[in-house]
Design goal:
The protein has 315 residues and is an alpha/beta fold. It is built from 13 helices and 13 strands. Helix 4 packs parallel to helix 5.
């Protein structure tokens, strides 16, 4: 087996440039904040796109719904990345919020893709997406070649979301689509509210518990995103999830064990559908994803198992 140091040396050799200038939308969220901190530690320059008042030299105002972004800033970038989007954790899921959820992803992606397409330098574009777009696929192992299920709400969102990046690709820019799974960290994402439930002794499987859950540590997500930003050969869709997906029931048992709490009380599917509406299907679906393309490029996971992911998340 190759050592981590050997892989790191080869990764350095594959870089097409040194310190990056990265323009980032969605840089104040759970993933964006962690990634900005990681990039800063690596010596990269990050300029965050903000819709409000600009408060520092590392910020730039934009209005994605009006198609407005500083074109000179895009021109000067090595990489442009979009993590923007209205949160999944929202109640109630009305028709209006479904539109907001979709538009917040499609409009931001399209504005950046069109800005890249009209630039001379054609910076690389990293466009966020999600593994939920694959839909309910049972125990089928899903690589990046698996089709998006456009018959579901999230599949429809993902199809529009990823299509919005096409102007950049058509113009010759390198585009990598980040199909992100469930990212685990105690400070945010899906795990933060789950910890409250499990620590109260009320945790357990959702629905049948047999559906697969594709998880990844936050540490590995920021490393994978950086890998895709740094490497000129990385383009196309990538599953950003761990190499060993587990079932919902296995996730609940392991989290309960690590918190020293019971994890036997199931959340009935009918209750979840009543409370969460349309989005409930995304929690009840089985999506068994493999990060085939990351593995093929030699990416080495620091936390390949659910146990190691949760241990890192709870630290």
């Amino acid at each position: 087996m190759r050592s981590r140091s050997t892989l790191a040396t080869r990764a350095e050799a594959r870089r097409t440039f040194g310190d990056m200038k990265l323009v980032l939308a969605g840089g104040s969220g759970f993933l964006g904040t962690a990634w900005r901190d990681h990039l800063a530690r690596q010596g990269h320059d990050v300029v965050r796109l903000v819709r409000g008042e600009v408060l520092s030299g590392s910020e730039s105002h934009w209005d994605p719904y009006a198609g407005q972004v500083d074109r000179s800033l895009v021109e000067s970038a090595d990489v442009v990345a979009n993590l923007a989007g209205a949160p999944l954790a929202h109640w109630p899921w009305t028709a209006s919020y479904r539109r907001t959820f979709t538009d917040s992803r499609v409009a931001t992606t399209r504005t950046l893709a069109e800005a890249i397409a009209s630039s001379d330098r054609k910076p690389a574009f990293l466009a966020q997406s999600g593994v939920a777009g694959y839909g309910d696929q049972g125990d089928r192992l899903l690589s990046e070649d698996a089709p998006v299920d456009a018959d579901t709400f999230m599949g429809s969102v993902v199809r529009q979301w990823e299509a919005a990046s096409q102007p950049a690709a058509d113009a010759g820019a390198r585009v990598a689509v980040l199909r992100t799974g469930v990212i685990l960290d105690r400070r945010g994402g899906a795990l933060k509210p789950l910890l409250l439930v499990f620590r109260a002794g009320l945790g357990g499987p959702i629905g049948s518990g047999r559906q697969y859950l594709s998880t990844m540590s936050l540490v590995d997500w920021v490393r994978a995103a950086t890998h895709l930003a740094e490497h000129d050969g990385s383009r196309g869709a990538y599953n950003l999830s761990g190499p060993n997906p587990t079932t919902n029931a296995e996730f609940g048992r392991e989290l309960g064990r690590m918190l020293h709490r019971p994890s036997v009380v199931p959340v009935p599917a009918v209750v979840l559908r009543t409370l969460a509406g349309t989005v409930a299907s995304e929690l009840l679906n089985s999506t068994r994803v493999e990060p085939a393309r990351l593995l093929a490029e030699g990416f080495l996971f620091e936390h390949p198992s659910l146990n190691s992911q949760l241990a890192a998340a709870l630290t």
